[in-house]
Amino acid sequence: MNLSIKSKSIFKSFLAFVVMISLVAGNVFAISEVIVTAPNGGEKWKGTQTLTWSSDCSSGENINIALGKGGSVENPGSSSVIALNTDCTPESLSFNTATKTDGADYQIRIESTQFPTILFDYSGGFFTIDNTKPTSSASALSAYQTLATFNIDFTSSDATSGVKSVELFYNKDGAGYISYGTNTTGTSFTFTAAVDGTYQFYTRAT
C-alpha cells in the first residue's frame, strides 16, 4: 500500500513537471486525471448510449476515445476510434452501439491528447454490445388435441447475451392473442384449454 501511494506521488510529480514545461511553452493545459465511469464493466448496451468520464480538465483540453475488443482488460485485441481530439469538459459523449458487432468483450479507453501514453484510463472490465433480439419458436402441434391439457415445446436462442425468458401467447377462435405465461428455466409450456375451440400459439423471447 505504501509503495502504491509513493508511486502515485511520483507520477503526479512527474506529470506536474511535464505540465510546467507545457505551460512554459505557452500552452494552458493542466489535465492530470481522466477516469472512465461508463461503461465500466458488466453493462449490456444496445442502441444509442452515453459514454461518461470524470476528469479535472478545463475548457480547451481534449481527449481521444477508443473502443477496444477482445484481448484482456486494458490490453484489447483490437481497437477502433470513437472520437479524436474531442473536448474533455462535457464528460459525456453519445455513442451509437448499433454500428458495432455484437460481443461481450468490449472496453473503452480514454486518453489525454497531450499525454496519451501516460494519462489514460480503461473501463474496469468488459461490457456487452448486443443489438440482436433473441429469437424463439413454438414447436408444431398435432392438428387435433384430445386432452384439454397438453405441452407446447419451444426453442430459443441469443448468441451474445443469452435468453432471460420466453413468453407464450395464444389465440382462441381468432379473438386476438393473450399472454399465457412466462418460462425462465425450461423449454416447454403446459397449456390448459378452458373450452373447446381453435387455438393458435406463438412465443416471444427476451
Spatial separation of the terminal alpha carbons: 45 Å
Number of helices: 1
**Residue windows where pLDDT falls under 50 for at least 5 positions:** 1-28
Percentage of residues in DSSP E strands: over 45%
Helix content: 10-25%
Q: Mind sketching the topology for me?
A:
Blueprint: H1 2-24, E1 34-38, E2 44-45, E3 48-55, E4 62-69, E5 78-87, E6 92-96, E7 103-112, E8 120-122, E9 127-129, E10 135-138, E11 149-157, E12 166-172, E13 177-183, E14 188-192, E15 199-205
Parallel strand pairs: 2-9
Antiparallel strand pairs: 1-3, 3-6, 4-5, 4-7, 7-8, 7-9, 10-11, 11-14, 12-13, 12-15
Structure description:
By secondary structure, this protein is mainly β. It is about 10% helix and about 45% strand. The chain contains one helix and 15 strands, in the order H-E-E-E-E-E-E-E-E-E-E-E-E-E-E-E. It has one helix at about 1-25; strands at about 35-40, 45, 50-55, 60-70, 80-85, 90-95, 105-110, 120, 125-130, 135-140, 150-155, 165-170, 175-185, 190, 200-205. The strands form four sheets. Strands 2, 4, 5, 7, 8 and 9 form a six-stranded mixed β-sheet that branches. It has a three-stranded antiparallel β-sheet with strand order 1-3-6, with no helix packed on it. Strands 10-11-14 form a three-stranded antiparallel β-sheet, with no helix packed on it. A hairpin with an 8-residue loop joins strand 4 and strand 5. It is elongated, with a radius of gyration of 27 Å. The model is unreliable at about 1-30 (pLDDT under 50).
